[in-house]
Amino acid sequence: MPGTHYVSRQSDRIDQVTGLPRMPTALAELSGLIRENRPDRHLGIISLAVVPDPLLFRQSADALRRIRLDISQQIGQLLRPQDRIYAISSREWLITLPNLLSSAVLMLAMIRLRDGLAALPGRVDNPHFQPRIAFGSAQWPDDSSDPLFLLQSARIARLIAEQGGADIQTYNPSMESTGNEEHGLLDELRQALNNNQGLALYLQPQIDIANGQCTGAEALLRWQRSSGEWIAPPRILDAIDRLGMRQTFNRWLLHQASQIQLQLAEQGIDIVLSINLSANDLLDIELPDMIGQVLATWDIAPDRILLEITETIMVDESWQVLDVLNRMRKLGLHLSIDDFGTGYAGLSYLQRLPVQEVKIDQMFVRQAAESEKAREIITSIIQLATKLNMSVIAEGVETTEILGILSALGCRFAQGFLFSKALPMPAFIDWWQENQTPA
What we know:
The protein has two domains: 3-175, Alpha-Beta Plaits; 181-435, TIM Barrel, CATH 3.20.20.450. By secondary structure, the protein is an alpha/beta fold. It has helices at 23-36, 54-57, 61-78, 103-118, 147-162, 180-195, 233-243, 246-266, 287-298, 311-315, 319-331, 347-350, 362-365, 372-387, 400-409, 425-435; strands at residues 42-50, 84-87, 92-100, 133-140, 168-170, 199-208, 214-224, 230-231, 272-276, 305-310, 334-340, 357-360, 391-395, 413-415.
């Protein structure tokens, strides 16, 4: 492949057959491309894939490898030097095309790719076999400004092309079939985000087991629709991603967390506030700058905010993720690994991460009273964190028996219904005043 089309040579993010960077790199770099793209130009994203059929499955492993190499090389020859290619799977590629004069140029690029790939010579076990390739596209700014949403949109359009009809499709929201009820939920959520109404953060206390004092709180997302229906947080976040409003939501989340810290300070409540990040957030190279700007706007000290990241995200770390994490630490933010124990992190792995806290997954905490294996896992986590000078907090603590077990095992902090459910801001302040003794 021509060197101009390589994005990264990091071995953990390179497709071993084609030498091309993979999806995490595409997500990490697309936000940068959006930022750098001229405002009067379009940014195009193309998803293309070999359509599965019986003849394809009859090819040998070596033949399939040659197909992938031939397609990758041909794509490289058909693109401009500034265009970038990513290998998504054994049969799928993504291409980004910055600074397009119009959406028509994106269509012309797909036609050029289709015609160029149709001319590939037969170099496989069956010389008469010619793979069918489907194309789908999306573009900035027309379809979205959210990198993940744009990539998903291009892939949805390509999926429609795979299913029959034209081999080239451009994204249209009508491609996503949703019922009237779901459309209503999406419309109401969009209005809630744009108007800053309806969505809220509830606070669940985090307790120092040794003295019973509240040292922090986790901010948990809540949304009650105008009908009175409460929507579960995972469904809210899924809807936000479908709307392509993840960056809008993150900005709202950071502003809300900052305002909560100001209100707590006015009541003399000095605690660290924890907020949650998703996997794709860590691939957003602009996120540390956004956080820094929001905290500066509200004059909030960075060490008053802790960012929780799930272990499954961290196990799949890449150089982009580590760069974002290190920039957050340089801001002065605290970092925690959430749901710890459900992944595969070990001592050498954790040593590379700029993290100050591990949070034991509630699955183990709730089994601590009756399961020796769960207690062994908790003990191992505590010992591992202690070696690395990290604090440990257990979530899902619901009984005094489990709290006593955690204390005996050396766990310092706890969170759960034993202390309180997640509370709206006024109720949290009342809880604090009733349960905390002056320092």
